[in-house]
Amino acid sequence: MTSRWIDIPAEAGSFKAYVSEPAGAPKGAVVVIQEIFGVNEGVRGKADWLAREGFLAIAPDLFWRLEPGVQLTDKTEAEWAKAFDYMKRFDAAKGVEDITRTIDAARKLGQAKVGAVGYCLGGLLAYLTACHTSADASVGYYGVSIETKLDEAQAMKKPLMLHIAGKDQFVPKDAQDAINAGLRDNPLVTLHTYAEQDHAFTRVGGAHYDAHAAELADARTVGFFKQHLA
Questions:
Q1: What's the CATH fold of domain 2-229?
Q2: Strand bridging mode 13-21 / 2-10
Q3: Would you place residue 32 in the very low, low, confident or very high pLDDT band (cuts 50, 70, 90)?
Q4: CA dist., res. 163 & res. 177, Å (int)
Q5: pLDDT per residue over 62-90, tens digit each?
Q6: End-to-end distance of the chain based on CA atoms, in angstroms?
Q7: Which of 33, 85, 117, 203 could form a disulfide with 122 if both were Cys (CB 3.0 to 4.6 A apart)?
Q8: What is the pTM of this model?
Q9: Active site (catalytic) residues
Q10: Nearest in space to 163 (alpha carbons), one of 114, 108, 126, 115
Q11: What Å distances lie between residue 223 and 53, 66, 161, CA to CA?
């Protein structure tokens, strides 16, 4: 496995993306969509995990219009405050445009099939990626505010998997119920609920990390990508 940073052209300059490459020929590519903390060590770790599983992984810096190179942790109140401020000012539509550019960059790197996986804010963006881009398969972990954009699923053409935390402090029960009601009959959507888990249960080192649930969710994700990208 090797890693590097690349520049991806945009309408006003370019933005950075972290690339992690497998040791052998990739099984496909996966765009790794950041949480509210930027392309930090945790997000780069997710890309490295996917590279170990055989995929070319690319994590774009989606906050670049606000501030390039944001890398926060979840360990201090000050960093949480900064992260929430970035999220409030972030333009999700522009984010989807940048994810589209990243998908294109992955294809230019020789990968015919490209998926996407996102966490928290990135979980929402993974859902929107499934609805509005050419991604071949998308996975969202504990995505926020999906219940406000369920009508956009009408545009979905490729498979989507969502991992839902049953006790998510940022996605209350009524929002989860709306997501389930709105998407469970969609043949392109697979929903998995982890009844006892809180938000970010796969964030290694996070307050709500649960190794067993994370292992289960990640195994489902890898299987999903092998099915749709290989």
A1: Rossmann fold (3.40.50)
A2: antiparallel
A3: very high
A4: 14
A5: 999 999 999 999 999 999 999 999 999 99
A6: 18
A7: 33
A8: 0.97
A9: 168, 199
A10: 126
A11: 10, 35, 11
